[in-house]
Amino acid sequence: MDRERLMKMAGSVRTGGKGTMRRKKKAVHKSSTTDDKKLQSTLKRIGVNTIPAIEEVNIFKDDMVIQFVNPKVQASVAANTWVIAGTPQTRKLQDILPGIINQLGPDNLDNLRKLAEQFQKEMPAGEAGAAQADDDDDVPELVAGETFEAAAEEGQKE
Description:
The chain is an alpha+beta fold. The chain has helices spanning 3-12, 32-46, 93-100, 106-122, 125-133, 148-157, and strands at 49-51, 56-61, 64-69, 72-76, 81-85, 88-92. The radius of gyration is 33 Å and the shape is elongated. The model has no long low-confidence stretch (mean pLDDT 77). Pfam families: NAC (PF01849). This is Nascent polypeptide-associated complex subunit beta. Belongs to the NAC-beta family. It comes from Salix dunnii.
């Protein structure tokens, strides 16, 4: 193309300047850091302190548990405020129960027994039969005079 013709076409394209309409509102792009700064300033005003060395936080909700592994925990007892920051995982109570039994106190064990009874009542009969059928891997009961090796050999023959 001719250079003069190209300059003529470039001159006719106007992105702003004399006679163009002004922008009425400036587009403000909010970032998540501003929200985080506002939250941190509010927490600082409440008087929240960081609690170190917490490995796990479990929040129990019906039969589901919201679990945080290695969270950042902050608390203010005066304001009755607890802040838990981290990546949550939603799990079933039955899945994490064996790992948290040693963390429960004596008063919580009664609640745990009630929950266990409730789950057994809710489990349909078909699932209960299937659960009993899976118990084949258990160690067989020994009769007086028998050894473990003899019982294991009998189990393999069957």
